[in-house]
Every structure is written in structure tokens, then in C-alpha cells.
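Repro:
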Amino acid sequence: MKTSMLSGKTALVTGSTSGIGLGIARALAQQGANLVFNGFGDAQQIEKLYTDIGKEFDVQTAYHNADMSKPDEIAAMMQFADAKFGGVDVLVNNAGIQHVANIEDFPVEKWDAIIAINLTSAFHTSRLALPGMQKKNWGRIINLASVHGLVGSAQKSAYVAAKHGLVGFTKVTALENAHTGVTCNAICPGWVLTPLVQKQVDDRAAKEGLSNEDAKKALLSEKQPSGEFVTPEELGALAVFFCSPAGDQVRGVAWNMDGGWAAQ
């Protein structure tokens, strides 16, 4: 059921054609926000996705295919949102990629791409969204970090560096806007069964001769005490909380939703 807490406001969610980004986009649409989707995938499937969500929640939706590693394309996406909806009220920096290797074996081009997409893109979207938010004296920037913004894991140097950087960037953004109605916070999920994580499960099942279900349990048992995946819907509900009046004084937090991972 649609509610109207964000009626008349516009949300832009990067990497929102699947996984966590899609879950958050749906949660914001349910609150009445118009939406700009972004991400890669089949053009017809993406059009059906954002059209269907618009109809389901009676909101306006649009899509921009900006590559989040390219500042010029990010600027074009922000201009698109401004032209279509008059700016961005809720910015969710969610786009991310992953590569796993030891530091001495880590391909330089993979390092550069992970830093660009997982960290630098949030700077570019934020710097372009902030003037409009400040003018309205209301805005929400939500950065999808990770539990890897709080702790490390071997073979994930670029990802961990980017996510720690995103947590730091979140704090500075919050402090610079502390006397305004603009807040900035980070969400730090543990394992979420996104296509990215499902690939890790599939690889593990093939490598260790496990069933897919057993591979999931093995993955969770190593890090996530709850033994359960975090869901995109749960993350969407947290994003909605940040956008609510109850979130007015939640500023600069790195809020882990990780089944107890970082508590160990």
C-alpha cells in the first residue's frame, strides 16, 4: 500500500535495476517518491521494470543509463533528473562492483574501477545534488557502504578501501550540512543475496562440490551469526526511516544491518 511521506519528492537510486538498489527504490516509491532509476541490463526489461513500479505505486519514474565510472555521464544523469523532476531530494548512492584477489595479484584496472564506481561516483552525485537540497533546506543522501566499511576481509582490498572511504565521506557530508535540513548517512549491509553474492555462492558450490543451499550456509556461517541473509526489503525500510521525520537528527552514522557480523 502506498503512503505519502515522500509525495512530491524525487529519489535517484544508482544501481537500482536489481538487488539492493531495486529494493530501496521500491520502498521509496511506496512512500510516494518519484524515481530516477540507473543501472545496466536489458533495455526492454529495464523499461518494463520502472514502468511497472510507476503504475504499482502511482508515481512518476524515469531511467538514465549513466556509467558510474564516468563523471561526464554522472553529470548528465543529474541534469536529466533536474530537467524531468526539478532536482533530487533523496540521493541513494548504491552502485557497486567487486573483484577478489590478493593485493600483489590485484589487477590495476580493477582497483581503479572499484574505487571509481564504489566511492568516487558518490562524490560526483553528492556535489551535484547538494546545492538543490540546500536551497530547499531538505534532503537525504544515503550511501550504501557495507559491513566492509567497518571491518576488513582478505582479498577484497579495493572494495574494503572504497567502502571505508564512503563511510568517511558520509561523515564529512553530514558535518558540512549539520545546520541544515540535509542529512547524510551510510547503510552497511552484511551478506545480501544479490546477483553479486549469488555468483559467489555459485562459485563456491562448484569449487567445493556443494549444493547451492549448503554453499549459502557455508558462506553465512563464516561471517554472519544470524545465519540469514539481509534482504533488500529490510534495507529499503531502513532507507525510509532515514527519510522520515524520526531521522532528522540521524546524521553521519554508519548503520550496520549485518546479522551480527560487526558485533564479533
